[in-house]
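Subject: Protein record for review, amino acid sequence with backbone structure tokens
How to read it: Take the token row as a discrete description of the fold.
Enclosed: The protein record, placed directly beneath this head.
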Amino acid sequence: MRSQQLVITAKTRISHIFGVHSPYFHEVLVAREVIEIATQVYQAYRCSSVMARTRINNTFIGTVIINCWSTPLIHALSRKKTTRDVLFERIVCIAVDGLLSLITSTMIPLVLFMPYYSAFEPALLTFSLDDLYNISWFTSFLTECRLVFPVTVIDFLSKLTPHVTTLFCMLSIAPLIDRRPRSAIQQFRVGAKQTWPSDSSSFVLSVQRRSLSRPMQATNFLIVLTGCMLFVLHIHAKVSVDHRELPGCSHKIYPWLPSKFPCMVFTYNCYRRGTSTAQDGDLSGLQVGSLTYLSFSHCDALVMPAEIQQFPALMEITIFNSTLVEWGAHAALSNTTQSNLATLLFVDVNFTTFPAALLQPLPPMLSDIEFSHTNLTTLPANLHEFWMDLGFLYLEHCQLTEFPETVTKMTMYDLSLLGNHISNMSLFADITPTLAYASLNLNPARQLPEQLTAPHAIMILGLENMQLDSIPEWLRTDVTSVASVHGNPYCDANRVDETIVKCVARDIYAQGKLPYESVRLLWPL
């Protein structure tokens, strides 16, 4: 009973300050809207800078603009003849404010998040490979998740504010729709009445001075002006971007006051441009802070342009179906120029020499380097000096004839040497203990090392379609989940699955962790 009385007292005090009967209603409303709109303008700026889905961007910006205009518009349209009219006006102001906050803080993030939630595969604890390697899907996933989830303290506070304002809006209206028995409410309000004026008396006082003070009017004017500025900035961005086209851009966005063409995903197709390589100045028309994904395709003699250093937001660079003649130090990757770069992808690439730009310390975020269907026969012996901490290293369907010793000196999480010509796997004994996934499928090796030099906890090890006559004991002790040996001579005499070693069950990545056939379709001639 005592706790219930404390709750009622607290709610009464909150209602006295924030409720519709409060003598401070207008002051509280304006203060709340100033904070709320400031955070929403920040989120609108972020949304315009990364959102390629036009309808969602328009909806978010439009909601913020309406929020800037709604309260002054309600004040202007209200009759304000009686206390009932003033009460109705206040209820409408709070309800509209709460609804608009709910749209920006909950409904739009849910619309962004639900498609990715539906695409997630719980059995694999990840998304399908086709999704992960789909340029448009994955780029949208990365950028839109940054809109849904906070990435900085300021971002967190700006996302939290609309939720708090929505809560206060609900608390303000809650007493008006309280359905508890009147006797109970009166009983628990006894303590509150001793120290706080009644709602009705407060409301009468506030109605008597219902005209807004000049500071309040000036603040409302600034809020309306903010909405007008947002409207002009958004329309200007739409017009300036939609009236221009840039061949190769598949994801255009609408940042405010763009100086160049704002594109998130850009493909330089040498075949369509009638050239063998990217020319100086070909990337100069792109907005520097907008480009997230860059690919070069169908280039007969690609020389990596130095202009790639101008794009600090780059997260992935792909080269497809090209001959890479030179990627020199003039176009090197570094923490100062590509601090967000996370992935390098080489598919159907002919290397005349190993890129010099990759023989130096890489950006710290770069954790995923993949080669598929290339002519690499070996790796530089000192590569581990520059590629110290990787998450993923795939060398699939290349021309490797020996297990790269430099790989054993790298720290990584996932390694694939699938589809090469490696007949001696003895160096696998020295592989990093941090390795959790490894794929050695489709190599002609006849045996594995008898033991590993350090204890391991490899979760999944792919050894399918090799030439293994026997398997070492460490497959049962250092592999924690599955060691797939399907298609080996060993399985001719062992056609049952053990707890770890599987002769029947197949490795889902038996043909490659990179979905080659799907990836090829992403870069048509």
Remarks:
- Residues 246-352 form one domain.
- The first strand starts at residue 249 and ends at 252.
- Confidence is low (pLDDT under 50) at residues 187-200.
- The chain has three domains: 2-242, 246-352, 367-525.
